[in-house]
Write a structure and sequence with these properties.
single chain; about 150 residues; mainly beta; eight-stranded antiparallel beta sheet; three-stranded antiparallel beta sheet
C-alpha cells in the first residue's frame, strides 16, 4: 500500500539535505522533503495526510496515520524560539483530521524579522529514505502530492 503525503503549504520543493538545520538535513529525525514558501507573508498549513493530530505546537505538528506512521511538519527553522509569535492554531491536539484540513495560520513577519529560515520540513518519522519517493516537481501547491511512501 502506498501513502501519498501532500504538501502542507505551497512553495518550492527543497531536498532535505539543503535544509539549514543538521537535525533535518542529516535525517536524524527521519527522511522527507522540505518546502520553501518564498516571500509569502501569510500561510495556512494544512494536514498532509488523514489521521490523528498526535502533537500540535504553534510551529509544528505530527499526524499519526491509521497505519501507524507519524508525519512531522515543522513551520520554519528554529521558530520554536518565537514562543508562538505569528502562529494561530486552528485545530486541537488529539483531533482526527482529513488531508487538506487547515491546522495553523502563519504570519511569517515575526520569523523573517528574527532572521529565521521559513523552510518547512515534512518528515516521515521512523521510516527509511528508501521507502520514500519525493515529487520531481520544482513547485507544489498546498494539497498536491509531495512524498509517496511505500
Amino acid at each position: 500500500m502506498t501513502t501519498t503525503i501532500t504538501a502542507p503549504i505551497a512553495g518550492a520543493v527543497v531536498a532535505l539535505a539543503e535544509v539549514p538545520d543538521p537535525v533535518f538535513a542529516e535525517e536524524i529525525v527521519g527522511p522527507g522533503a522540505a518546502i520553501d514558501p518564498g516571500e509569502a507573508a501569510s500561510l495556512t498549513a494544512v494536514a498532509p495526510v488523514a489521521g490523528r493530530l498526535s502533537s500540535l505546537k504553534p510551529h509544528a505538528f505530527v499526524i499519526s496515520t491509521p497505519d501507524g506512521r507519524g508525519i512531522l511538519v515543522h513551520l520554519g527553522i528554529d521558530t520554536v524560539e518565537l514562543s508562538g509569535a505569528g502562529f494561530e492554531l486552528l485545530a486541537e491536539a488529539g483531533a482526527e483530521v482529513a488531508a487538506g484540513d487547515a491546522l495553523i495560520t502563519w504570519d511569517t513577519a515575526p520569523a523573517r524579522e528574527a532572521g529565521k529560515s521559513l523552510v518547512v520540513p515534512v518528515i516521515v518519522l521512523e521510516a527509511e529514505s528508501g521507502d520514500l519517493k519525493i515529487t520531481p516537481a520544482a513547485e507544489v501547491a498546498a494539497g498536491e502530492g509531495l512524498i509517496e511512501l511505500a
